[in-house]
Amino acid sequence: MKDIIILNIKELIQVEDSPRLMVKGAEMAELTTIKNAFLHISNGLIASFGSMEIFGDKFNSRQLDNSKIIDATGKMVFPSFCDSHTHLVYPASREIEYVDKIKGLSYEEIAKRGGGILNSARRLQDISEEELTCSAFERLKEIISFGTGAVEIKSGYGLTTESELKMLRVIRKLKEISPLTIKATFLGAHAVPLEYRFRQTEYVDLIINEMIPMVASEELADYIDVFCDRGFFTVEDTDRILNAGMKYGLRPKIHANELDYSGGIQIGVKYNALSVDHLEYTGDAEIEALKDSETMPTILPGAAFFLNMPYAPARKMIEAGLPVAMASDFNPGSSPSGNMQLVLSMASILYRMTPEEGINATTINSAYAMDLSREMGSIAVGKIANVFITKPIPSYQYMPYYYGSNKVDTAILNGVVECVN
Ligand code: NIG
Ligand code: FE
Description:
Elements: E1 4-13, E2 33-42, E3 45-51, H1 55-58, H2 61-65, E4 68-71, E5 76-79, E6 81-83, H3 95-102, H4 107-112, H5 117-125, H6 129-145, E7 148-154, H7 161-177, E8 181-189, H8 200-217, E9 223-228, H9 235-247, E10 251-256, H10 264-270, E11 275-278, H11 284-290, E12 296-299, H12 301-306, H13 314-319, E13 325-326, H14 340-351, H15 355-362, H16 364-368, E14 387-390, H17 398-401, E15 408-413, E16 416-420
Parallel strand pairs: 1-4, 1-5, 6-7, 7-8, 8-9, 9-10, 10-11, 11-12, 12-13
Antiparallel strand pairs: 1-2, 2-3, 5-14, 14-15, 15-16
The site of fe (iii) ion has 5 residues, from loops.
């Protein structure tokens, strides 16, 4: 594989000499950059970077001749976005429900009449692994073109043992065929299937006694998730499921406090969840629980925006000294977009986060929320070379500001140019 040397970078963003696992509180407002920089990629990893002023001393003409040289005059280089929460394997879009929502039905009302997640679950029973893989692969190509380098994908539209395994096998296949770094999460507890409507505990038993052991024996999941919220799974259900997952080494990443003060954040912290996600209903008790934990609070702006929900108190969390990550929640019901540039814009527009805070939330902190911050999420020597080169832009603040259009020019994954827009 040829080395890549990117020259004349207008500004190299998010560089670290001593890489950190995440940034929290006031650190989130800090972003280290190098103006007029170069970046050297070798064997799929970041080999070196620095100012163009020292470039001439570092490389001889033989090295330059043997490398692929990219001139980035006027352009910037960012670490790829890390999207730590998606449901991007799904059978079909759900725009008809979206029209119902416009007319006034709530997310919960749609769910109650068998729409929402159950609608996707019904369609998933009849679709083949090949079809699911193909459609998800197209979505992966799309998010690569928007600058994503790592993505977590959940099951949770199966809701039967067979179909949950089907979804997870599709995710395993995607790990093999996509240049993205992918993490798989088992989300059998996404919704209670209609046939278990008044027997929720029995469905939880099925998850614990049948699904989790099978998922673990095929090593299909990196993490386990529960939708712990009003109208979905209780704290008690969640406690049982996470306890069962723990016995198989499945660390939780959970859906919490989207619809109410559900206790989801506290139960997540109790099981040392890697992340608790959504967090629209986060008060002082929840913030207190997150302090001194190893759990990454993760906000999903796309879902709150699309469902017209209250926004999680991001500023309050940062001021309390917490880290904040952001992810797309890409799914057909509550966030039909995997565009992390849009998530970055929403961080500023909806949550009053500065561009620096938004960039940290969508790179290093969201990498942490997938246990990937040692390998990616910043420009540091030895990290995987997942970066993107922007189109010519005046400043990095322009990234969240100029929302709605694709500012990525070239996506490089594992040191290979994967996409030129
Ligand atoms: O993260 N909140 C729960 N689950 C998804 C929605 C999935 C769906 O509606 O299909 C979410 O928003
Ligand atoms: Fe979700």
